[in-house]
Design brief:
By secondary structure, this protein is α/β, with parallel strands linked by helices. The protein contains 16 helices and 16 strands. It has 2 domains: about 1-170 and about 365-395, Rossmann fold (3-Layer(aba) Sandwich), CATH 3.40.50; about 175-360, Glycogen Phosphorylase B (Rossmann fold). Helix content is about 40%, strand content about 15%.
């Protein structure tokens, strides 16, 4: 997305990072493995790494903490160095530093985050404290960039109509994933041989961190029920599980004796389209999933999707029965029924996949640029198409 924004001739984009640990490689607690991304993270846009006061190669409230933010936002003559500051998130020391510095310099602040109202239970005291925090936060920002329907509801709950909202959809590089998925078809036979998959058997795919809240265990139980209650004479489907994490050992134990289950471990981003290509349907049964960008990626491969109603992207990307199915989180019976419909109804998975590709094609980086332009025009009192706009994005 940063590369796409940087292509705009009248938006002068600089990105300030608080750490380079994602580039160096790091231990991802969710996957439980060392991660080094196999796609370029820094190409195609201007960026700087801020000097670190604290950086333990994790992202938390107090890490990283950078110095020099005020000086970076101020030019040598003491005036603002930028027309606009975009901060991603509000719960870290760096984000708060950036917002406070911008307000002191008179730079408008845009805020973007993944938050939603379907939060974990909190005491009345904590809710009152959060309300007080947001009252202060409101005075530090000038606009918000909602990523989708549930995120918009979150901001409206705390800010009402007092802070303007500019839609900036939570998107992936649609062009990248569509091309990778088309290319994967040529190597389908090789991939099937690698995973020991027989031709003619459908594939149910899970690809995410194997954390307990992702509830791959619900999918595994639904798969068992599907096998036990099959009404079709077609060959039994496979269940392919891509990912690693805290729940893997339990899942492997629960899957013993099921010849159709494949555990594939962690796979990097550029490898995933090869799995999407094999899938008849993708399932994300998570609890408390504020968005679920993997759903965007799979839809770009033209595949049907099944998600729980606790996956935040569903109001924007899925209509139940059209691109796939949405079922009540934790309801394994409903998940089993959805799987059965997709797997056993002739032509349904294909039609849903086509619908998914059509829908996701209208939810991408072009819509992000349009939303950002609206925000720039409104907050800087300029028409973005006629003026050079200097824009700094803080991503911690």
């Amino acid at each position: 997305m940063l590369r796409r924004i940087a292509k705009e001739p009248d938006i002068d984009l600089t990105v300030l990072f608080g750490s380079d640990f994602s580039v160096r490689g790091y231990q991802d607690k969710g996957f439980g493995v060392a991660v080094k991304w196999d796609v370029p993270l820094l190409d195609g846009y201007q960026y700087e790494f801020l000097p670190a006061l604290r950086d333990n190669a994790t992202q938390s409230v107090t890490s990283p903490i950078s110095r020099g933010i005020v000086g970076r936002l101020r030019s040598r003559d003491g005036n603002p160095a930028y027309d606009l500051l975009w901060v991603h998130g509000y719960s870290t020391v760096n984000c708060m530093q950036g917002m406070l510095a911008a307000k002191a310099l008179g730079i408008p602040v845009l805020l973007r985050a993944e938050s939603w109202l379907r939060d974990r239970s909190r005491s009345g005291l904590r809710l009152r404290a959060k309300g007080a925090f947001f009252a202060g936060l409101e005075r530090m920002i000038d606009g918000v960039l909602p990523i989708g329907t549930l995120n918009r509801e979150y901001w409206q709950n705390y800010f009402g109509d007092r802070v303007p909202l500019f839609n900036m959809p939570y998107a992936v590089d649609n062009e990248f994933f569509q091309k990778k998925s088309r290319d994967a078809a040529a190597g389908r036979g090789e991939m099937m041989a690698e995973l020991k998959l027989e031709a003619g058997r459908r594939v149910i795919l899970f690809a995410s961190k194997l954390q307990h809240r992702k509830h791959c265990d619900h999918l595994l139980e639904a798969y068992k029920r599907l096998l036990a209650n099959r009404a079709s004479n077609d060959p039994a489907p496979y269940l392919v599980i891509v990912g690693d994490g805290e729940a893997r050992a339990e899942l492997e134990t629960a899957a013993k004796g099921l010849e159709g289950v494949r555990f594939c471990g962690f796979r990097n981003q550029s490898e995933l389209p090869r799995f999407f290509d094999l899938a008849s349907v993708f399932v994300l049964p998570s609890r408390h999933e504020p968005w679920g960008l993997i759903v965007n990626e799979v839809m770009n491969a033209g595949r049907a999707v099944i998600v729980s109603d606790d996956v935040g992207c569903h109001p924007d990307l899925l209509t139940n029965g059209v691109e796939g199915f949405v079922y009540p989180v934790g309801d394994i019976g409903a998940l089993t029924e959805a799987l059965q419909q997709v797997v056993e109804t002739p032509g349904l998975a294909k039609q849903m996949g086509e619908n998914a590709l059509t829908r996701i094609s209208g939810w991408g980086f072009e819509q992000d640029v349009a939303g950002l332009r609206q925000a720039i025009a409104a907050l800087t009192k300029k028409i973005a198409a006629e003026h050079v706009v200097q824009n700094v994005i803080d991503i911690w």
